[in-house]
Each structure stands twice: as C-alpha cells, then as structure tokens.
Design brief:
The chain has helices spanning 3-6, 16-32, 81-86, 115-127, 187-207; strands spanning 54-57, 64-69, 73-76, 90-95, 100-108, 133-142, 149-157, 161-168, 173-181, 209-210. The strands form two sheets. The chain has a seven-stranded antiparallel sheet, sandwiched between helices. A three-stranded antiparallel sheet has the order 1-2-10. The chain has five helices and ten strands.
C-alpha cells in the first residue's frame, strides 16, 4: 500500500514542512548577526561663482571706501530713522543666494570712543561666542592702503559668526565686521561657505581706504 496516498493531502508534506521552517529560522538568525553601518549624513553641494568680481563701495557720508563681491548688495543696518542718523555708516553686505551677510559698523575715535575702548568692546563681542566656539584664533591683518591694520578672528565650532575683525588707523577711524549665516550654526554644513566668504572678508579688509 502507498502510505502517502493513504493519508490526507496536507499530511503528505509533513516531513518537508519542518525542513522549510528550519531553513527560514537559520536564514533569519544569520541575518541578525550582520552589522549594519549607517551612511554618514550628507549636505547639499553648494555652487560658488567661477570668478570673484568686486565693486567699490563709497558714499559722501562715510570716511572710507572698500571693495565687496558683486553677488552681494549693501543694506542699511536699520530702518529706524534715529538709528540711521546716529550711525549712518552701519550697514550689512547681504549675499542672498548663500544666506550670508557681513555686518559692518564704523566708529570715529574720540574722547568718548577711545581706541582702547573700541578694541575692548570688539574683543568682548567676539568672545561672547566662546560658549559655542571650539576655538578662537587671532591673526594680524593689514590693508594694501596706508594706515589700515587690525585683527581677524577665526571662530571655530557651532558659533553664530565664524569670522570677525576690526581695523583702524589708530587715530580717527575704527571699523568692526562679522560674518553671519541665516541658518542654524552647524560647522559641518556651513564650513565650505564660511571658508569661501572668509576670503571675501579678507579682500574687503585689505581694500579699505580712509578718505
């Protein structure tokens, strides 16, 4: 007698079913031992201009001129009439495509705003970023024109401003500047842009000319 034909149909494969179940279990166990390595977080690639072209900023009020990249534009630092009258030479250079700006402020050196006070104020504003900064490096910087010198600060880490500076002639003029981005400070994501605009800041500083 054919024993397989004697039992119901579903019983014919009662020897095969345990084999399949065991095979699937073995497969699942082996897959659990595999190590999964997550991909590193990536950021959008940022395209920069092939060539830097600079234009000169000058007006009848501010006692200085400088050069800035043409992919930026000058914007007053405030819409408040009183503030504009008090600080006519405070403004921003906006780079909309890169969500960046360079903030500039000019002060005359006098008995109320002594050179020592202005330098100390600039130092305090820069080192307010030490909470988020990994480091702050100071570099002496000089302009190509006469009597333009100061300090460039490179602020490392997730600070709001990665580059700051001041320049002066030590007698009459004092300019302070800082580079900011309109985004959450993340050193990994903004590093290429910060490095690119650092060169713009250096060009701006070196091109300053006192009138």
């Amino acid at each position: 007698m054919d024993l397989l034909n004697f039992f119901p149909f579903k019983t014919k494969y009662h020897f095969i079913t345990p084999f399949i179940s065991g095979f699937i279990t073995l497969l699942l166990l082996s897959s659990c031992n595999e190590h999964y390595t997550p991909k590193n977080k990536s950021y959008f690639r940022i395209e920069f201009p092939n060539e830097r072209i600079f234009t000169t900023y000058s007006n009848n009020i501010c006692p200085f001129t400088f050069e800035y990249a043409t992919y930026g534009f000058i914007q007053k630092d405030s819409t408040n009439t009183q503030e504009l009258n008090e600080h006519p030479c405070w403004f921003n250079i906006i780079y909309p495509e890169y969500k960046a700006k360079v903030y500039l402020s000019y002060s005359s050196i006098n008995s109320l705003n002594t050179l020592d006070k202005l330098i100390k104020d600039s130092y305090k504003l820069t080192f307010k970023h030490t909470v988020k900064a990994d480091y702050i490096d100071e570099t002496s910087i000089k302009g190509i024109h006469k009597n333009v010198s100061g300090i460039l600060y490179d602020v490392g880490g997730n600070a709001a401003s990665s580059v700051q500076f001041y320049v002066t002639d030590s007698v009459q003029h004092f300019i302070r500047g800082s580079l900011y981005f309109y985004s959450a400070p993340n050193v990994d994501s903004i590093a290429p842009v910060a490095a690119y605009f650092r060169d713009d800041v250096i060009h701006l500083v070196k091109s300053i000319h006192w009138k």
